[in-house]
Amino acid sequence: MRITGTGGGRGRKVAVLTTSVLAASALLLTGCSSSDDGDSDASASDGGITLTVADFGQFGYKEADLFAKYHQLHPNITVKEEVTANEQDYYPKLLQQLNTGSGLGDVTGIEVGRIKEVVDTQADKFADLSKSINVSDWVSWKEKQATTKDGVVIGAGTDIGPMSLCYRKDLFQQAGLPTDRAEVAKAVAGGWEDYLKLGEKYKAKAPAGTFFMDSASAMYNAVVSSDAKQYYDADGNPIYKDSPAVQQGWNLAAEAAQKKLTQGLPQFTDAWTAALRKGSVATVACPAWMANQISNNSGDAYKGKWDISRAPGTTAANWGGSFLAVPKGGKHVKEATDLVKWLTAPEQQAAVFKAAGIFPSNQGAYELPDVKNATLAYFSDAPIGQLYAEEAKSIPEAVLGAKDGVIKDTISTQINNMEQRGTKPDDAWKAATDAIDKAIG
Q: So what's the pLDDT on residue 315?
């Protein structure tokens, strides 16, 4: 996930992972595309193909230097990345380009909060990748998200966001709470309800000017992400008003806001980054990509003071993830498909994880040293490779809906209003549901 309006986020700076080093030749050669077998059109033989990858936020390819490596493998192909900072700006433009058939990249990124809508309404405009990639290489639920009822696969999975809990050891110690990651996990083993109980203990002895969590809306997203049934049922009907996961997340968020366990800062805003830099936040709901955000915004002063434990409860959760797709109307569909296959192969996903902390969805990466042995020095050498891989394998297969992103964003906005403006939960819920019903029809 990236910093987007659909509940994800990634920054543009990089947290360094400590791992065993892969041989350069393995990174370059394993999982290579099949473009060497022959060119699909005349321009390829001229050595003049330029492939454009259109995406948003941070996919980690620049940080891992993958496009330069691909050019070394395929001297006749140059890859350019066109990045839109905010997915909320990127997605409407993508839909317009699909409708007009112009302006599309050879490869396009699609965020998980949009993939269901694209699968249901735009699948005929993308190449079928089912013959190019082995869908069983990905965690089982990932590729199903990008697969039509007829078995057409329109996107290859890039990353996922297995959930954990990031916390400040020094602040926990000052508040009389456990600091060892195993003990912290034990303290919240009963679920997010236990997390709030821990928050009340923290508040009772909290260091001046600090708050237990950054944002109740972030906790809400983590709660909902652990359930298979979220905003829609399997038939495509919106069920968010009656969804047990949504109700649980909402009630916990309202409780956190009323008990002032949260600083009330929407994530990725200037105020949020300032709070991390100031050191006023004790915990953050932490999908895999969030560690990079925390380390970059908190700075060197807090290195070694953060740690990472298992997420509250016993149910694994995923928050975030994207796909790479190939529009049918491109001039170089075969070459673009080969590039997608290479970028989402285990070795390249491991390289992205090492460079940018973006966790692979391709299971083959989990046994590679750059993932399996990964620790994060900033977070007290937390064994994130093992932690996230274990979580990823047991994440439930969520039912996705066409407007998941819209629903999530709207509810998050009203949770922010409860925190910042003191809006009563009933009033906030009515405002959220009224806005959602208007948006989704």
A: 87
Residues 358 and 58: their CA atoms lie apart, in Å, by 9
Other Cβ atoms within 10 Å of 46 Cβ, number: 10
- The whole-angstrom separation of Cα 310 and Cα 403 is 30
Return the beta strands (E) in 3-137 as ranges: 17-18, 49-56, 77-84, 107-111
State the pLDDT at residue 46. 52
For 142, phi then psi, to 5°, come to -65, -55
Handedness of CA 105, 109, 113, 119 (dihedral sign): positive
d(CA 224, CA 202): 24
CA dihedral for 388, 392, 398, 402, sign (positive or negative): positive
Distance (Å, whole) CA 300 – CA 277: 9
Q: Token pair of 49, please?
A: 């193909």
DSSP 126: B
Long-range contacts at 117-125 (CB < 8 A, ≥ 24 apart): 117/402, 117/403, 118/154, 118/155, 118/325, 119/145, 119/146, 119/147, 119/148, 119/154, 120/236, 120/402, 121/402, 122/95, 122/98, 122/154, 123/148, 123/152, 123/154, 124/328, 125/98, 125/327, 125/328, 125/329
Report pTM. 0.85
Can you tell me whether residue 418 is helix, strand or coil?
A: helix
Q: Using the CB atoms, write b or e for 97-127: b if 16+ within 10 Å.
A: bbeeeeebbbbbbbbbbbbbbbbeebbebbb
Q: Give CA–CA dist 222/163, Å, rounded.
A: 7
Parallel, antiparallel or unpaired: strands 49-56 and 17-18: unpaired
What integer is the mean pLDDT of 56-61?
Answer: 94
Kindly write down the DSSP assignment for every residue of 313-354, as one continuous string. SSS--EEEEEEEE-BTT-TTHHHHHHHHHHHTSHHHHHHHHH
250 CB-near residues (< 8 Å, 6+ apart): 220, 411, 415, 425, 429
Tokens of 2: 């990236």
CA distances from 217 to 182, 246, 318, 352, 406 (A): 26, 12, 15, 28, 14
- The tens digit of pLDDT for each residue in 228-238 reads 999 999 999 99
Instruction: Determine whether 92 is exposed, middle or buried from the number of CB atoms within 10 Å of its CB (0-12, 13-18, 19+).
Output: exposed
* pLDDT of 47: 57
Q: What is the dihedral angle through the alpha carbons of 63, 68, 72, 78, rounded to the nearest 10 degrees?
A: 150
pLDDT digits (tens, 9 = 90+) for 370-422: 999 999 999 999 999 999 999 998 898 899 999 998 999 999 999 999 999 99
